[in-house]
Design goal:
The chain is mostly helical. Helices cover 76% and strands 0% of the residues.
């Protein structure tokens, strides 16, 4: 259980880094909402994979690494976009009026 909790903390920190930066002229609440939503989805994905492993419907290797790999990929993508000083969500998805 300790490794599960430490994994959640590590991924939460990695995803929180790009979400903590914001434009002073924009609202700050969208980053907080995104961080909470990502945490809830990650926590549920890990719980679902653990239950699928326990019932034997998913192999141990795939079940224990799939959700971590997906969220690590999301974290790397967010850090990459933030390092280029781009918006976290591309314009063709968010459809902002400029």
């Amino acid at each position: 259980m300790a490794t599960f909790t430490s994994n959640i903390n590590i991924y939460s920190i990695i995803i929180a880094i790009p979400l903590s930066f914001n434009n002073p002229r924009s609202g700050r609440s969208i980053n907080i909402v995104a961080a909470i939503l990502l945490f809830v989805i990650y926590n549920n994905a890990v719980s679902i994979s653990n239950s699928l492993i326990a019932t034997g419907q998913l192999s141990i290797w795939l079940g224990s690494w799939l959700s971590h790999f997906i969220f690590l990929s999301i974290a790397i993508y967010l850090i990459y976009r933030r390092s280029l000083n781009l918006e976290l969500i591309p314009n063709f998805i968010s459809k902002k009026n400029k």
